[in-house]
Amino acid sequence: MKADHVVLRAAEEQALRLRQMGYTTEDVVGTEDHLAMFATTEAIAAYHSAETLEQDLRQLAESKPEIAELREIGRSLEDRPIWALRIGERQVSEHKLLFMGCHHAREWVSVEVPYLLAEHLVNNAGQPHVRQWLQRGEIWVSPIVNPDGHEFSRTQDRLWRKNRRTNIDGSIGLDPNRNYGYMWGTLNISTSSHVPSDPTYVGPRAFSEPETQAVRNLVASELFRGIITYHSFSQLILYPWGYTSQPIPDASDLSTMTKLAKRMQQLIRGVHGMTYTPQQSSQLYLTAGDTTDWTYGEYGIPSFTIELRPDSVEHGGFILSPEQIEPTFEENLPAAMEFIKRIL
Amino acid sequence: MTPLQGDDIERLLQMPLGLDVWERGRDPDVVIAAANESQISELERRRLAHLERLYTVEEFVSEFGSRPGDQPGARNAEESDEEE
After folding, report:
1. A-chain residues near B19 (CB < 8 A)
2. Best CA proximity match to A325, nearest among A160, A143, A98, A142
3. In chain A, where does DSSP find H-type helix?
4. A19 and A49 inside one domain
5. Which terminus, N or C, of chain B has the lesser number of Cβ atoms within 10 Å?
6. B84 assigned to some structural domain
7. Do A181 and A225 have their domain in common?
Protein backbone atom coordinates (compact mmCIF):
# COMPACT_ATOMS: atom_id res chain seq x y z
CA MET A 1 0.00 0.00 0.00
CA LYS A 2 1.43 3.39 -0.99
CA ALA A 3 0.06 6.85 -0.64
CA ASP A 4 -0.99 7.09 -4.24
CA HIS A 5 -1.29 3.49 -5.38
CA VAL A 6 -1.89 -0.04 -4.24
CA VAL A 7 -0.34 -3.25 -5.55
CA LEU A 8 -2.77 -6.11 -5.65
CA ARG A 9 -3.52 -9.33 -7.43
CA ALA A 10 -6.49 -9.31 -9.75
CA ALA A 11 -7.92 -11.38 -12.53
CA GLU A 12 -8.44 -9.70 -15.88
CA GLU A 13 -12.15 -9.15 -15.32
CA GLN A 14 -11.43 -7.54 -11.95
CA ALA A 15 -8.88 -5.22 -13.54
CA LEU A 16 -11.46 -4.29 -16.19
CA ARG A 17 -14.00 -3.50 -13.49
CA LEU A 18 -11.51 -1.23 -11.74
CA ARG A 19 -10.87 0.65 -14.97
CA GLN A 20 -14.61 0.99 -15.53
CA MET A 21 -14.82 2.51 -12.07
CA GLY A 22 -12.31 5.13 -13.13
CA TYR A 23 -9.07 3.73 -11.72
CA THR A 24 -5.87 3.54 -13.72
CA THR A 25 -4.34 0.08 -13.73
CA GLU A 26 -0.90 -1.14 -14.72
CA ASP A 27 0.18 -4.74 -15.11
CA VAL A 28 3.24 -5.14 -12.87
CA VAL A 29 3.94 -8.82 -13.11
CA GLY A 30 1.99 -11.82 -14.40
CA THR A 31 1.28 -14.83 -12.21
CA GLU A 32 3.70 -17.06 -14.06
CA ASP A 33 6.55 -14.57 -13.75
CA HIS A 34 5.78 -14.06 -10.11
CA LEU A 35 5.65 -17.78 -9.55
CA ALA A 36 9.12 -18.02 -11.03
CA MET A 37 10.36 -15.59 -8.40
CA PHE A 38 9.07 -17.44 -5.35
CA ALA A 39 8.68 -21.03 -6.40
CA THR A 40 12.37 -21.67 -6.22
CA THR A 41 13.63 -24.86 -7.72
CA GLU A 42 14.81 -25.91 -4.29
CA ALA A 43 11.38 -25.49 -2.71
CA ILE A 44 9.60 -27.22 -5.56
CA ALA A 45 12.03 -30.14 -5.42
CA ALA A 46 12.11 -30.45 -1.65
CA TYR A 47 8.35 -30.69 -1.23
CA HIS A 48 6.28 -33.52 -2.67
CA SER A 49 3.93 -33.15 -5.55
CA ALA A 50 0.99 -35.54 -5.80
CA GLU A 51 2.99 -37.46 -8.38
CA THR A 52 6.25 -37.73 -6.45
CA LEU A 53 4.33 -38.66 -3.32
CA GLU A 54 2.77 -41.59 -5.16
CA GLN A 55 6.20 -42.65 -6.39
CA ASP A 56 7.69 -42.51 -2.93
CA LEU A 57 4.78 -44.27 -1.25
CA ARG A 58 4.89 -46.97 -3.89
CA GLN A 59 8.61 -47.38 -3.38
CA LEU A 60 8.08 -47.74 0.37
CA ALA A 61 5.41 -50.37 -0.17
CA GLU A 62 7.60 -52.29 -2.59
CA SER A 63 10.57 -52.15 -0.24
CA LYS A 64 8.68 -53.99 2.52
CA PRO A 65 5.62 -55.68 0.99
CA GLU A 66 5.20 -57.86 4.05
CA ILE A 67 4.27 -54.86 6.17
CA ALA A 68 3.41 -52.02 3.77
CA GLU A 69 0.58 -51.83 1.28
CA LEU A 70 -0.43 -48.87 -0.88
CA ARG A 71 -4.16 -48.34 -1.12
CA GLU A 72 -6.16 -45.93 -3.27
CA ILE A 73 -8.86 -44.69 -0.91
CA GLY A 74 -10.60 -42.48 -3.45
CA ARG A 75 -10.13 -40.10 -6.32
CA SER A 76 -10.25 -36.34 -6.31
CA LEU A 77 -12.51 -34.07 -8.35
CA GLU A 78 -9.80 -33.84 -11.02
CA ASP A 79 -9.45 -37.62 -10.88
CA ARG A 80 -6.19 -37.78 -8.96
CA PRO A 81 -5.77 -40.81 -6.71
CA ILE A 82 -5.90 -40.22 -2.97
CA TRP A 83 -3.37 -42.59 -1.42
CA ALA A 84 -2.98 -44.22 1.95
CA LEU A 85 -0.19 -46.48 3.06
CA ARG A 86 -1.27 -49.29 5.35
CA ILE A 87 1.60 -50.34 7.62
CA GLY A 88 1.32 -53.45 9.76
CA GLU A 89 1.81 -57.20 9.78
CA ARG A 90 -1.71 -58.32 10.67
CA GLN A 91 -4.26 -58.64 7.94
CA VAL A 92 -7.14 -58.37 10.39
CA SER A 93 -6.84 -56.14 13.43
CA GLU A 94 -8.98 -53.83 15.52
CA HIS A 95 -5.95 -51.78 16.50
CA LYS A 96 -5.59 -49.11 13.85
CA LEU A 97 -4.54 -45.49 13.71
CA LEU A 98 -4.71 -42.88 10.93
CA PHE A 99 -2.37 -40.00 10.19
CA MET A 100 -3.39 -37.52 7.49
CA GLY A 101 -2.02 -34.42 5.83
CA CYS A 102 -2.80 -31.66 3.38
CA HIS A 103 -6.48 -30.99 3.70
CA HIS A 104 -5.43 -27.44 2.90
CA ALA A 105 -3.50 -27.06 -0.32
CA ARG A 106 -0.96 -24.41 0.75
CA GLU A 107 0.16 -26.28 3.87
CA TRP A 108 3.01 -28.07 2.19
CA VAL A 109 4.81 -29.24 5.32
CA SER A 110 1.63 -31.07 6.34
CA VAL A 111 2.40 -33.52 3.51
CA GLU A 112 5.99 -34.07 4.54
CA VAL A 113 5.54 -34.90 8.22
CA PRO A 114 3.10 -37.81 7.72
CA TYR A 115 5.10 -39.02 4.73
CA LEU A 116 8.33 -39.03 6.76
CA LEU A 117 6.48 -40.79 9.57
CA ALA A 118 5.44 -43.53 7.15
CA GLU A 119 9.00 -43.77 5.87
CA HIS A 120 10.33 -43.98 9.42
CA LEU A 121 7.92 -46.76 10.40
CA VAL A 122 8.65 -48.83 7.30
CA ASN A 123 12.42 -48.37 7.48
CA ASN A 124 12.50 -49.08 11.20
CA ALA A 125 10.03 -51.96 11.18
CA GLY A 126 12.74 -54.16 12.68
CA GLN A 127 13.18 -51.99 15.77
CA PRO A 128 11.59 -53.68 18.81
CA HIS A 129 9.01 -51.00 19.64
CA VAL A 130 7.96 -50.52 15.98
CA ARG A 131 7.83 -54.26 15.37
CA GLN A 132 5.60 -54.63 18.42
CA TRP A 133 3.19 -52.02 17.08
CA LEU A 134 3.12 -53.50 13.60
CA GLN A 135 2.46 -56.95 15.04
CA ARG A 136 -0.35 -55.57 17.21
CA GLY A 137 -2.16 -53.53 14.58
CA GLU A 138 -1.99 -51.16 11.63
CA ILE A 139 -0.90 -47.59 11.10
CA TRP A 140 -2.40 -45.86 8.09
CA VAL A 141 -0.86 -42.73 6.59
CA SER A 142 -2.54 -40.55 3.96
CA PRO A 143 -0.26 -37.54 3.37
CA ILE A 144 -2.35 -35.70 0.75
CA VAL A 145 -6.12 -35.63 1.18
CA ASN A 146 -6.49 -32.69 -1.26
CA PRO A 147 -4.23 -33.46 -4.24
CA ASP A 148 -5.98 -31.10 -6.69
CA GLY A 149 -5.62 -28.12 -4.41
CA HIS A 150 -2.05 -29.04 -3.60
CA GLU A 151 -1.08 -29.20 -7.24
CA PHE A 152 -2.77 -25.87 -7.88
CA SER A 153 -0.76 -24.34 -5.05
CA ARG A 154 2.45 -25.74 -6.56
CA THR A 155 1.76 -24.47 -10.06
CA GLN A 156 -0.64 -21.50 -9.99
CA ASP A 157 -1.32 -19.98 -6.59
CA ARG A 158 1.04 -20.68 -3.72
CA LEU A 159 -1.52 -19.55 -1.15
CA TRP A 160 -4.47 -21.58 -2.46
CA ARG A 161 -6.35 -23.31 0.37
CA LYS A 162 -9.39 -25.14 -0.95
CA ASN A 163 -10.10 -28.02 -3.32
CA ARG A 164 -10.98 -27.36 -6.97
CA ARG A 165 -14.76 -27.71 -7.04
CA THR A 166 -16.55 -25.32 -9.40
CA ASN A 167 -19.21 -23.72 -7.22
CA ILE A 168 -22.68 -22.66 -8.19
CA ASP A 169 -21.64 -19.02 -8.44
CA GLY A 170 -18.66 -19.81 -10.66
CA SER A 171 -16.06 -19.47 -7.93
CA ILE A 172 -13.68 -22.33 -7.29
CA GLY A 173 -13.19 -24.52 -4.29
CA LEU A 174 -14.51 -25.37 -0.91
CA ASP A 175 -12.65 -26.00 2.33
CA PRO A 176 -12.28 -29.76 2.81
CA ASN A 177 -11.76 -29.19 6.53
CA ARG A 178 -15.26 -27.73 6.83
CA ASN A 179 -16.99 -30.45 4.81
CA TYR A 180 -17.17 -33.22 7.41
CA GLY A 181 -20.52 -34.29 8.75
CA TYR A 182 -20.50 -33.50 12.47
CA MET A 183 -22.26 -30.18 13.07
CA TRP A 184 -21.65 -29.40 9.41
CA GLY A 185 -22.92 -26.01 8.31
CA THR A 186 -24.05 -24.88 11.75
CA LEU A 187 -21.92 -21.73 11.64
CA ASN A 188 -21.85 -18.92 9.11
CA ILE A 189 -18.82 -16.86 10.06
CA SER A 190 -15.48 -15.88 8.56
CA THR A 191 -13.86 -19.12 9.67
CA SER A 192 -16.72 -21.38 8.54
CA SER A 193 -18.57 -19.76 5.64
CA HIS A 194 -21.58 -20.44 3.43
CA VAL A 195 -20.31 -18.07 0.75
CA PRO A 196 -18.82 -20.14 -2.10
CA SER A 197 -16.05 -17.68 -2.92
CA ASP A 198 -14.83 -17.52 0.69
CA PRO A 199 -11.70 -19.45 1.69
CA THR A 200 -13.57 -21.42 4.37
CA TYR A 201 -16.63 -22.30 2.26
CA VAL A 202 -18.25 -25.37 3.83
CA GLY A 203 -19.78 -26.70 0.63
CA PRO A 204 -23.37 -27.39 -0.46
CA ARG A 205 -23.78 -30.27 2.01
CA ALA A 206 -21.78 -32.46 4.34
CA PHE A 207 -19.42 -34.84 2.56
CA SER A 208 -20.23 -33.29 -0.81
CA GLU A 209 -16.63 -33.77 -1.94
CA PRO A 210 -14.89 -36.94 -3.13
CA GLU A 211 -11.90 -36.01 -0.96
CA THR A 212 -13.87 -36.03 2.28
CA GLN A 213 -15.89 -39.02 1.11
CA ALA A 214 -12.63 -40.92 0.73
CA VAL A 215 -11.66 -40.19 4.33
CA ARG A 216 -15.18 -40.87 5.57
CA ASN A 217 -15.29 -44.24 3.85
CA LEU A 218 -11.84 -45.21 5.05
CA VAL A 219 -12.64 -44.32 8.66
CA ALA A 220 -15.97 -46.14 8.45
CA SER A 221 -14.40 -49.31 7.10
CA GLU A 222 -11.27 -49.41 9.27
CA LEU A 223 -12.72 -48.04 12.54
CA PHE A 224 -9.52 -46.39 13.70
CA ARG A 225 -8.79 -46.00 17.39
CA GLY A 226 -7.36 -42.52 16.93
CA ILE A 227 -6.36 -39.98 14.32
CA ILE A 228 -3.94 -37.14 13.87
CA THR A 229 -4.45 -34.73 11.00
CA TYR A 230 -1.55 -32.42 10.20
CA HIS A 231 -1.90 -28.81 9.11
CA SER A 232 0.17 -25.68 9.21
CA PHE A 233 0.88 -23.26 10.70
CA SER A 234 0.95 -21.94 14.27
CA GLN A 235 2.50 -24.77 16.31
CA LEU A 236 -0.62 -25.95 18.07
CA ILE A 237 -2.00 -29.28 19.27
CA LEU A 238 -5.77 -29.00 18.89
CA TYR A 239 -8.52 -31.28 20.15
CA PRO A 240 -12.32 -31.11 19.82
CA TRP A 241 -14.57 -29.26 19.83
CA GLY A 242 -14.08 -26.75 17.06
CA TYR A 243 -17.75 -25.89 16.52
CA THR A 244 -18.36 -24.63 20.06
CA SER A 245 -16.40 -23.15 22.91
CA GLN A 246 -17.97 -25.69 25.24
CA PRO A 247 -15.66 -28.58 26.17
CA ILE A 248 -16.52 -32.13 25.19
CA PRO A 249 -18.90 -33.44 27.85
CA ASP A 250 -17.20 -36.79 28.48
CA ALA A 251 -14.72 -36.07 31.29
CA SER A 252 -12.72 -39.22 30.65
CA ASP A 253 -12.28 -38.49 26.95
CA LEU A 254 -11.38 -34.89 27.71
CA SER A 255 -8.78 -36.01 30.23
CA THR A 256 -7.31 -38.52 27.77
CA MET A 257 -6.95 -35.93 25.04
CA THR A 258 -5.71 -33.05 27.18
CA LYS A 259 -3.12 -35.23 28.94
CA LEU A 260 -1.91 -36.71 25.65
CA ALA A 261 -1.75 -33.25 24.08
CA LYS A 262 0.31 -32.01 27.02
CA ARG A 263 2.65 -34.98 26.74
CA MET A 264 3.08 -34.44 23.02
CA GLN A 265 3.91 -30.81 23.74
CA GLN A 266 6.68 -31.90 26.12
CA LEU A 267 8.09 -34.40 23.63
CA ILE A 268 8.10 -31.89 20.79
CA ARG A 269 9.83 -29.29 22.93
CA GLY A 270 12.48 -31.79 23.95
CA VAL A 271 13.82 -32.10 20.39
CA HIS A 272 14.53 -28.55 19.19
CA GLY A 273 13.00 -26.45 21.95
CA MET A 274 9.95 -25.45 19.94
CA THR A 275 6.67 -24.79 21.71
CA TYR A 276 3.47 -26.28 20.35
CA THR A 277 0.51 -25.16 22.42
CA PRO A 278 -2.24 -27.64 23.33
CA GLN A 279 -5.72 -26.15 23.32
CA GLN A 280 -9.30 -26.81 22.36
CA SER A 281 -9.74 -26.20 18.66
CA SER A 282 -12.34 -23.47 19.15
CA GLN A 283 -9.82 -21.39 21.12
CA LEU A 284 -8.06 -20.76 17.82
CA TYR A 285 -11.33 -19.90 16.14
CA LEU A 286 -14.69 -21.58 15.71
CA THR A 287 -15.03 -24.11 12.89
CA ALA A 288 -17.98 -26.30 12.01
CA GLY A 289 -17.49 -29.42 9.93
CA ASP A 290 -13.82 -30.09 10.54
CA THR A 291 -12.12 -33.47 10.56
CA THR A 292 -11.57 -34.01 14.24
CA ASP A 293 -15.01 -32.85 15.37
CA TRP A 294 -16.33 -35.55 13.04
CA THR A 295 -13.96 -38.35 14.04
CA TYR A 296 -14.54 -37.64 17.72
CA GLY A 297 -18.21 -36.73 17.46
CA GLU A 298 -19.10 -39.72 15.28
CA TYR A 299 -16.69 -42.35 16.59
CA GLY A 300 -15.60 -41.10 20.00
CA ILE A 301 -11.91 -41.61 19.24
CA PRO A 302 -8.95 -39.43 20.34
CA SER A 303 -8.55 -36.93 17.53
CA PHE A 304 -5.94 -34.23 17.14
CA THR A 305 -5.17 -31.50 14.65
CA ILE A 306 -1.49 -30.63 14.83
CA GLU A 307 -0.59 -27.27 13.33
CA LEU A 308 3.07 -27.53 12.38
CA ARG A 309 5.84 -24.95 12.00
CA PRO A 310 6.25 -22.08 11.86
CA ASP A 311 4.68 -20.30 14.79
CA SER A 312 3.81 -17.10 12.98
CA VAL A 313 3.44 -15.14 9.76
CA GLU A 314 6.66 -13.41 10.77
CA HIS A 315 8.50 -16.72 10.31
CA GLY A 316 6.94 -17.46 6.96
CA GLY A 317 3.43 -18.70 7.69
CA PHE A 318 2.46 -21.17 4.99
CA ILE A 319 5.77 -20.68 3.18
CA LEU A 320 8.15 -22.78 5.23
CA SER A 321 11.65 -23.02 3.82
CA PRO A 322 12.75 -26.54 2.83
CA GLU A 323 15.44 -26.52 5.51
CA GLN A 324 12.65 -26.65 8.07
CA ILE A 325 11.13 -29.92 6.86
CA GLU A 326 13.49 -32.26 8.67
CA PRO A 327 13.49 -30.48 12.04
CA THR A 328 9.70 -30.21 11.88
CA PHE A 329 9.48 -33.96 11.37
CA GLU A 330 12.15 -34.67 13.98
CA GLU A 331 10.25 -32.83 16.68
CA ASN A 332 6.91 -34.40 15.74
CA LEU A 333 8.24 -37.96 15.56
CA PRO A 334 8.31 -38.61 19.33
CA ALA A 335 4.83 -37.08 19.62
CA ALA A 336 3.53 -39.42 16.93
CA MET A 337 5.25 -42.38 18.60
CA GLU A 338 3.67 -41.48 21.93
CA PHE A 339 0.27 -41.28 20.25
CA ILE A 340 0.83 -44.73 18.73
CA LYS A 341 2.06 -46.16 22.03
CA ARG A 342 -0.92 -44.89 24.00
CA ILE A 343 -3.75 -45.32 21.56
CA LEU A 344 -2.92 -48.30 19.34
CA MET B 1 -6.54 -6.74 13.12
CA THR B 2 -7.12 -5.71 16.69
CA PRO B 3 -10.42 -4.81 18.29
CA LEU B 4 -11.56 -1.28 18.87
CA GLN B 5 -11.66 -0.12 22.46
CA GLY B 6 -14.38 -1.89 24.36
CA ASP B 7 -14.88 -4.45 21.63
CA ASP B 8 -13.96 -8.09 21.30
CA ILE B 9 -12.08 -9.79 18.49
CA GLU B 10 -14.31 -12.84 18.90
CA ARG B 11 -17.26 -10.76 17.76
CA LEU B 12 -15.36 -9.86 14.63
CA LEU B 13 -14.44 -13.48 13.89
CA GLN B 14 -18.05 -14.54 14.28
CA MET B 15 -19.23 -12.17 11.58
CA PRO B 16 -19.56 -13.45 8.00
CA LEU B 17 -16.80 -11.26 6.58
CA GLY B 18 -15.15 -13.84 4.36
CA LEU B 19 -11.72 -13.29 5.88
CA ASP B 20 -8.87 -15.73 5.29
CA VAL B 21 -7.66 -15.99 8.90
CA TRP B 22 -4.00 -17.03 9.02
CA GLU B 23 -2.99 -16.59 12.60
CA ARG B 24 -4.38 -15.93 16.02
CA GLY B 25 -1.50 -14.19 17.74
CA ARG B 26 -0.07 -14.99 21.15
CA ASP B 27 -2.20 -12.06 22.18
CA PRO B 28 -5.69 -13.48 21.51
CA ASP B 29 -6.91 -10.03 20.51
CA VAL B 30 -4.60 -9.99 17.49
CA VAL B 31 -5.70 -11.73 14.31
CA ILE B 32 -3.68 -11.87 11.09
CA ALA B 33 -5.75 -12.43 7.97
CA ALA B 34 -5.48 -12.11 4.24
CA ALA B 35 -8.10 -9.85 2.69
CA ASN B 36 -8.73 -8.07 -0.57
CA GLU B 37 -9.09 -4.32 -0.81
CA SER B 38 -12.88 -4.37 -0.77
CA GLN B 39 -12.88 -6.39 2.45
CA ILE B 40 -10.35 -4.03 4.00
CA SER B 41 -12.43 -1.04 2.93
CA GLU B 42 -15.53 -2.61 4.44
CA LEU B 43 -13.77 -3.26 7.74
CA GLU B 44 -12.58 0.33 7.84
CA ARG B 45 -15.87 1.81 6.67
CA ARG B 46 -17.81 -0.05 9.32
CA ARG B 47 -15.11 0.64 11.92
CA LEU B 48 -15.00 -3.00 12.89
CA ALA B 49 -11.35 -3.19 13.90
CA HIS B 50 -7.99 -1.49 13.90
CA LEU B 51 -6.12 -2.59 10.82
CA GLU B 52 -2.41 -2.71 10.11
CA ARG B 53 -1.32 -3.68 6.63
CA LEU B 54 1.64 -6.05 6.85
CA TYR B 55 2.30 -7.30 3.32
CA THR B 56 0.66 -7.61 -0.03
CA VAL B 57 0.34 -11.22 -1.10
CA GLU B 58 3.08 -10.81 -3.66
CA GLU B 59 5.43 -9.20 -1.16
CA PHE B 60 4.82 -11.97 1.33
CA VAL B 61 5.28 -14.79 -1.13
CA SER B 62 8.35 -13.15 -2.64
CA GLU B 63 10.01 -12.53 0.72
CA PHE B 64 9.41 -15.86 2.37
CA GLY B 65 9.79 -17.93 -0.77
CA SER B 66 13.44 -17.00 -0.93
CA ARG B 67 14.27 -16.74 2.77
CA PRO B 68 16.36 -19.57 4.25
CA GLY B 69 15.32 -21.37 7.42
CA ASP B 70 15.84 -19.35 10.56
CA GLN B 71 14.31 -21.54 13.25
CA PRO B 72 15.93 -24.17 15.46
CA GLY B 73 17.21 -27.25 13.72
CA ALA B 74 16.89 -25.80 10.23
CA ARG B 75 19.38 -27.40 7.93
CA ASN B 76 21.68 -25.26 5.84
CA ALA B 77 25.10 -25.67 4.33
CA GLU B 78 26.89 -23.82 7.12
CA GLU B 79 25.25 -25.95 9.80
CA SER B 80 26.08 -29.12 7.94
CA ASP B 81 29.71 -28.04 7.71
CA GLU B 82 29.81 -27.30 11.43
CA GLU B 83 28.34 -30.68 12.28
CA GLU B 84 31.01 -32.41 10.23
Report:
1. 190-191
2. A143
3. 12-20, 31-38, 41-46, 50-63, 109-123, 128-136, 147-155, 210-222, 251-272, 291-299, 325-343
4. no
5. C
6. no
7. yes
Q: How far is B47 from chain A (nearest CA, A)?
A: 17
Question: Least CB-CB distance to B37: which of A6, A39, A271?
Answer: A6
- Are A16 and A147 members of one domain? no
Q: What are phi and psi of A70, to 5 degrees?
A: -90, 130
Report the complex ipTM.
Answer: 0.83
For B76-79, the CB contacts below 8 A with 24+ separation are: B76/A323
Contact A38 B21 (CB under 8 A): no
Poorest-pLDDT segment among A21-25, A103-107, A171-175: A21-25
The per-residue pLDDT for range B16-51, each reduced to its tens digit, is: 989 999 999 778 889 999 999 999 999 999 999 999
Which residue numbers of A are catalytic? 307
Closest Cβ opposite residue B61 in set A8, A319, A326: A319
Domain assignment present for B27: yes
The answer, for B53 touching chain A at a CB cutoff of 8 Å, is yes
Residue A3's domain comprises 1-37
Q: Which residue of A has its CA nearest to B62?
A: A38
Same-domain pairing of A20 and A33: yes
The structural domain count of chain B equals 1
